[in-house]
Amino acid sequence: MAIQRNPDHDYSVDLARIVGDHRADSGTIHFLGDDGQLHLAATTSGLPDAVLALIRTIPVGKGMAGLAVERAEPVTACNIQTDASGDVRPGAKATGLAGSIVVPIFDGDTVIGALGVANRSERTFSDDEIARLVLEGRRLAAERRGA
Predict the structure, then answer these.
(1) Within a domain: residue 117?
(2) Other CB atoms closer than 10 Å to residue 57's CB: what's the count?
(3) Domains in the chain, number
């Protein structure tokens, strides 16, 4: 069954609110496309063009967003500039950001995308902050359905 989509919705408005509410400096929203890859739906300003080119389409399993979708769980980095976990792709360092998290966007039990926020300074997200971001993702999924 095909997922209904709300093509007229401006996700950048949602993203700006989410970034502000979570005291972050940057953010992205990606949704899974029919091709099985993540496609950029919204981003905050300030990301370098070279980074935008890299994140327009992301394979599931690659980078923080792709891993969050593949694992169906949040992927975090206290400082993506120094992270050695292997979860952070080399291109992420070009953002100049440090503390970051990407949570899967759930529609029911199905992962349909990824919501990421990041700070210029090191940051560890609390369990409460993570839960609130997952809830924000569920709201984005409802909006995507047009609910």
Answers:
(1) yes
(2) 13
(3) 1
pLDDT at 3: 45
Q: Is 86 left (phi over 0), alpha (psi -120 to 50) or beta?
A: left
Residue 4, in any domain of the structure: no
Structural domain range at position 51: 11-145
Q: The CATH number of the domain where 124 resides is what?
A: 3.30.450.40
DSSP class of 78: S
pTM for this predicted structure: 0.87
Q: Where are the beta strands (DSSP E) in 1-147?
A: 26-32, 37-43, 57-59, 75-77, 100-107, 110-118
- Backbone dihedral region of 80: left (phi > 0), alpha (psi from -120 to 50 degrees) or beta? alpha
Query: Does the residue 30 lie in any domain?
Result: yes
Residue 17: per-residue pLDDT: 95
pLDDT, tens digit (0-9, with 9 covering 90-100), for 37-80: 999 999 987 777 777 888 899 999 998 899 999 999 999 875 55
Domain membership flag for residue 42:
yes
Number of Cβ within 10 Å of residue 20's Cβ equals: 11
